[in-house]
Design goal:
By secondary structure, the protein is α+β, with helices and mostly antiparallel strands. It is about 25% helix and about 30% strand. The structure holds pyridoxal-5'-phosphate (PLP) and 2-OXO-4-methylpentanoic acid.
Length: about 350
């Protein structure tokens, strides 16, 4: 249990009005906790949102020893503040930390910190349809040292951003570019971890995809460039010939919390679900045979995002006439219904911030 000190701002900011974008506006407060070798995590505190002062030699700037998470807070239909499976973000934090040689944080401390800072800024949670308070926990290596080594000191912080849809198109299907040249991650690398380096590795392909009018990149495996992995900020699902199919967790893709939830829901509905290798050739063939029925991405920021178009080299696969399919719509309605407290929470995924 953390003993969190709270310093409230004396200068609260104006809340945003009008259409919210993603991740551009920040609330009045943030959470900070230090780590020092020999002392462990210490001085947990909530302070006014502020810039940081760090040595230019801080190791995070040079070798990227850092991690981040993403989750959301919602206003439920009875006005309560709700989180969705925050313990899963705490567990994934520690899986990432192990890979990046960052000290672990007990899951209950992680969840306590998230709840505490969200509580302080809960009047920043937007309530327009499709909006939420995006929560960004992250850890950076702060020791000033230019040798390649594990830092002796770290900062764990949580910032909050009232946000709208991740894609400007909202629930309109997005176009996705299947990248056949660059790769994001290989098994044994850091693909399963939520660390900035994976996203830095994605930028060159994303620029290429954007220039061609596509929203994001769909990565292929790093060895044969043949098997589907995941999208820039989402896991990917297909409905092929009546079955729900998604790439299995193989070490190089992020084990998404939304992915895990969608799999549980589909199995609970009695749908046939497969987690396995999916080749791009299989998709092209299924498309030719009229069996590629739906495609959607899953992620915290993107929620459930229908994919209307997939480009691979000279082929463009238009899926479901470029419209959201019935299964994608049902999954979107169910996931958001549970998150917002509108539907029964059969799996115990909602957490109330008191
Ligand atoms: N894959 C990548 C690369 C991501 O950045 C995200 C977003 O967090 C996801 C998948 C989806 O994960 P989750 O559902 O836990 O948000
Ligand atoms: C999230 O969905 O929380 C993510 O981290 C995606 C992010 C890269 C915007």
């Amino acid at each position: 249990m953390l003993d969190i000190k709270i310093e409230r701002t004396t200068n609260p900011k104006e809340k945003p009005t009008g259409k919210l974008g993603f991740g551009k506006v920040f609330t009045d407060h943030m959470f900070i906790m230090n780590y020092t070798n020999g002392k462990g995590w210490h001085d947990p505190r909530i302070v006014p949102y502020q810039d940081l002062t760090l040595s230019p030699a801080a190791m995070v700037f040079h070798y990227g020893q850092e991690m981040f998470e993403g989750l959301k807070a919602y206003k439920g239909i009875h006005g309560e503040t709700l989180l969705f499976r925050p313990d899963m973000n705490g567990k994934r934090t520690n899986d990432t930390n192990d890979r990046l040689c960052i000290p672990q944080i007990p899951v209950e401390d992680f969840v306590q910190a998230v709840k505490a800072v969200v509580k302080v800024d809960e009047d920043w949670i937007p309530t327009e349809p499709g909006t939420s308070l995006y929560i960004r926990p992250f850890i950076i290596a702060t020791e000033p040292f230019l040798g390649v080594d594990v830092s002796d000191t770290f900062l764990f912080m949580i910032i909050l951003s009232p946000s709208g849809a991740y894609y400007e198109s909202g629930l309109e299907p997005v176009g996705i570019w299947i990248e056949d040249d660059y790769v994001r991650a290989v098994r044994g690398g850091m693909g399963f971890a939520k660390t900035g380096g994976n996203y830095a590795a994605s930028l060159a392909a994303q620029v290429k995809a954007h220039d061609d009018g596509y929203s994001q990149v769909l990565w292929l495996d790093g060895v044969e460039r043949k098997y589907i992995e995941e999208v820039g900020a989402m896991n990917i699902f297909f409905k092929i010939d009546g079955k729900i199919v998604t790439p299995m967790l193989n070490g190089s893709i992020l084990p998404g919390i939304t992915r895990n939830s969608v799999l549980q829901l589909c199995r609970d509905w009695g749908m046939e679900v497969e987690e396995r290798r999916i080749s791009v050739d299989e998709l092209l063939q299924a498309q030719k045979d009229g069996k590629l029925e739906e495609c959607f991405g899953t992620g915290t920021a993107a929620v459930i995002s229908p994919v209307g178009k997939l480009r691979y080299k000279d082929d463009v696969m238009v899926i479901g006439g470029g419209k959201i399919g019935p299964v994608s719509q049902k999954i979107y309605d169910t996931v958001t219904g549970i998150q917002l407290g509108k539907l029964e929470d059969k799996f115990g995924w909602r957490v109330v911030v008191e």
